[in-house]
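Bench notes, bay 3.
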Amino acid sequence: MIFKKLFQLMFLLIIFLNFSNLLLAKSKAESKILNEKILVGDNIKYKIIIPNPEKNVISLNSMDLSPFDLIKKSQLTTKDNKVEFLLELSIYEIGKQTIPELKFIISGEKNETELVIPSKELVVGSVLNKADEKGLAIKDIKDSILIKEKSYFIIYLLLGVLSFIILFFVFKKWSEKEKSTPVIIEEKIPADEIAYKKLSELINQDLIKKGKVKEYFFLLSEIVREFIGNRYDFDSIELTSGELVSAIKTEAKFNREYLVVINNFLEDSDLIKFSKIEPLSEEIENTTKLAFKIVDDLKIKIMDWLW
């Protein structure tokens, strides 16, 4: 009976400590905009500082920051155990704007909690001066045309006709040369076939059994990055995870919600590649399955709609 009460007491104490840590993090979490003045098209630097005395894993769970575009995301842990997130945003609308609330996932050893950073308002100014905005700087130029310029109309007309004749003969000669030269069409291998082949080769290397977990995740991440670049025809290998997500939003045409799947894969891979955390076999299997899922989903043409 005594042991049972002690166990219950310890259980309540653990819950209280976790809840207290969460309240402490919420009460001391800071968010601030580093720019003194913001104009349309500027890179807006938005910093969030979260205390992390328990050294938990903290990750951003918000991807849609509309009407802002997320250009770059970086994360830094300070000596006093604070996690600093620096988000670089851009917007092309003037006036009062609101950065939506941000949701962070705090993952401890035994539980997972959510931290919400409230929305933040800012004012975006125009790059035009007041005279330009009111239309006062635009002058009528019809009366400024010199009569002398009209005398050159015939010369301009003759030069135009002569240029057209030269271009016509050049084009005709080029067309005849093209007809006489056999055209060799190279068949391009689909991006998904290349990705499937490389994923199979990676699995057959048995890097996990050999203890080369980080090497396995480096190659797995590279295959998915290369596939996305080949699929949507842009250079993706040298981009960071944040730059890749921004490039996908610009280059790829599919449902915006699917960015969450790609971002989760990139963050899980980066966490294992750049930290000392040893993933469980179940986590390795789930991340590998997610890589196959991305290739499976993005090869389907029906997903190519504008968000």
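Next record in the batch:
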Amino acid sequence: MRIRKTVNICLTAAAFAFAFAVNAENAVNVSDVDVDSVGNVNIVNDVDTVNNTITSDRDTAGHDDIKSGFAASTFAGKDSSTIGRRPLPPKISDEPPLLLGAHWGLGMGLSVGTVPIFPMWQKYFPDSLRLLGLSPTFAADSGDGALLRYRVTESPDPFNFTTPFCLSVYSIGESRVYSFTVSFFRNSKEFQSELSLSPDSTGRRINTLERLVYYSVSIEAAGRWAIPQDFFSIDGTQQTLLTIALGASPVNFTRESELKTNFDNDTRMSAVADSAKKTFAALSGNGLSLSWRIGISAIKRYPSGYGAEFGIFYSGAYSNYFYSDGIRLTEDHIKTRGVDLNAENVINGKPLSFISSQLEFRVTVLVPTNKKRDKD
């Protein structure tokens, strides 16, 4: 009896062992399954066997009945929130980096305003025979009965436009900009007139031209401070700046004249020309000017590494101490024609001085002083 029980137990154990061995052929070998340190199962062998098992184990609707197993082991140890996501590319800014450091500046402007020496000159230039010291019957003893006529053929432009040119050195920071500038400007106006006889069949004529030229080379130091964007800003620019500048310069003016005639050996017209030359006398003077400028400008950098400053400014200058041949000029030197600089009626007049003002728009190209420019 005991022997029979023993035999039955052995047969039963053998049957279970056979069944386990058969099932093991269709499953993943336990020796081929690796369990890592955190408990995740990694299948390393028999992938085909597992795939066959998944394929054969579909339900009647054609859906996989496997809820775990190979898929679970594949994504084991990964955060489910990152599955199916791709890392975003780094954001690339379209804005170029800031324009900083030392730069050369080459600029040009356009300004319009008042320069009092011009209206002072225009008010007193000769526009009649009387101011020329002549009369219609001047040298009338020629016997031809012709009278002297005078007319203005070109008057000076009432507007004062100038185009200053500037060479600068800039030091550009994130919130402050400093510059040192040398600039040049020239402004001139012309007055033309004509002297002739009427009636006159020969067309004898004297053409007069008088030009007043005002020019200067100035030296200027300027500071610029960034305006907070909450108050004021210009789209597309790096900085919007409040500019204040002070400068000093030698100023010069020259009154030039020229007479042209179309006749020879005419005693009467030669006397008229000699008288006109005394009235259209040349005059020049050198003075000193102190200037100031205030306005708003903006700096922009371009991908090439260069930059530009655009600005609109109000500027003024006080010009004084004009001298010619060691004599301090007065306003009467401008008003009175054809007299000696030392004449008592002009030398004791009011010293020549005036304040000019301009509205100016200026563009300056900024070039890095380092030839190996930053191309970031």
